[in-house]
From TrEMBL:
<dbReference type="GO" id="GO:0043531">
    <property type="term" value="F:ADP binding"/>
</dbReference>
<dbReference type="Pfam" id="PF18052">
    <property type="entry name" value="Rx_N"/>
</dbReference>
<protein>
    <submittedName>
        <fullName>Uncharacterized protein</fullName>
    </submittedName>
</protein>
<feature type="domain" description="NB-ARC">
    <location>
        <begin position="152"/>
        <end position="294"/>
    </location>
</feature>
<dbReference type="Pfam" id="PF00931">
    <property type="entry name" value="NB-ARC"/>
</dbReference>
<feature type="domain" description="Disease resistance N-terminal">
    <location>
        <begin position="3"/>
        <end position="48"/>
    </location>
</feature>
<dbReference type="InterPro" id="IPR002182">
    <property type="entry name" value="NB-ARC"/>
</dbReference>
<comment type="similarity">
    <text>Belongs to the disease resistance NB-LRR family.</text>
</comment>
<keyword id="KW-0547">Nucleotide-binding</keyword>
<dbReference type="InterPro" id="IPR041118">
    <property type="entry name" value="Rx_N"/>
</dbReference>
<dbReference type="GO" id="GO:0098542">
    <property type="term" value="P:defense response to other organism"/>
</dbReference>
<keyword id="KW-0611">Plant defense</keyword>
<dbReference type="InterPro" id="IPR044974">
    <property type="entry name" value="Disease_R_plants"/>
</dbReference>
<keyword id="KW-0677">Repeat</keyword>
<keyword id="KW-0433">Leucine-rich repeat</keyword>
Amino acid sequence: MIDIQCFLTDAEQRRTEELAVKNWLTKLKDAMYDADDIIDQAMFEGSKLLEIRPSLTRCTGSSILSCLPNIRRRRVIAVRIRNFKAELDQIFKWGETVLKLQNMQPRRQISSRRQTKTSQLVEPNLVGKEILRACTKLVVVVLAHKGKKAYKLGIVGTGGIGKTTLAQKIYSDHRVKEVFNKKAWICVSQKYSEVDLLKEVLRNFGVHQEQGETFAELSSKLGATVEKESFFLVLDDVWHPEVWTNLLRTPLHAAATGIVIVTTRHDNVAMAIRVEHMHRVELMSTQVGWELLWRSMEINEEREVKNLRDIGIEIVCKCGGLPLAVKLIARVLATKDKTENEWRKFIENSAWSMSKLPTELRGALYLSYDDLPRYLKPCFLYCALYPEDSIISRDDLVRCGINTEKDMSMLHSLDKDLIVTTRTFIVFNCKSIEIVLDA
């Protein structure tokens, strides 16, 4: 088992590019399920043996036949263990001789000192300077058109570039909060239910919905809610213009005034919605990206990493000017030594160039996943089972990775690393986000 664990690091790095390695990991996983079954069976049979232990001491003479069922149970388990060991040896030899997996030491566990340091990485308000400047500009646009019937403002850009962050900054601006009676933040995404979306808007506006209300009833209720009122609505991650043109435009037209902010990856969506003002989020400059990198590592002054500036700029360039990628990489680098050798090994990681991953998951985003300890990766993948923006209980997320008592204590000590407390990540629950689901 120890030998196979040493191969896992190399196998996990190669599985995306090599089908044979992926199949090897599948066989190993199946074998581990068999091991779990054997342990469960042994514990079950062992508990039964303990219950009848007094009688076992008297298995002599004429009562010897009563001991045979217990011997038979033990033999069945022993045979399963022997077969499992043979299967595991075969898997090990296949990985060593055929796949040429390298014997690499597993990643060291995150120390308690580093757990404390990384638990509050990437503050909610930590954004690039371009985002702050754009926020100031767009708040002025919002306030200048606050008297319009339904003024639509589009924020357009590629995934991970900061559209949602910019919209959040505008949404949270105190000047915006003071102007509008009703405010709602709605994550739309590619697949949405019209009824559920109407319910979510009403919930944001503070309106109770009855169970079983129809689309027509909800639409009518929304219109009555905003009648002669002012509203501020953010439609985040819009893929189809119909969410406005067919669903929300008619009921919200009853409002006296309103602002609608639409974030989308696609120009044609913004144009179909007929936004009056379109803001394109541009890629970060390397200088701003470098500052975002070291600030996201909870470093107070640049001089602490001044000697790493050149290689830091290289890392920022590999992130493609995307703030999300820079922040994720900062989280990984914060767990490593601040030395040029350590950062150089990181930048030379083959995960940067994996060609078979979806575009959104290449490079920085995959590296942040790849650097997770093995026992935390299932927790991350578990999130992909939930629809985007759905509520996930933090306790459920922590428990999903618990397989042993050792894992339990480790995961509970790391739960703050798993859950970032922000506007969309709250203390007891969190929300699945788009970048997790892109896989």
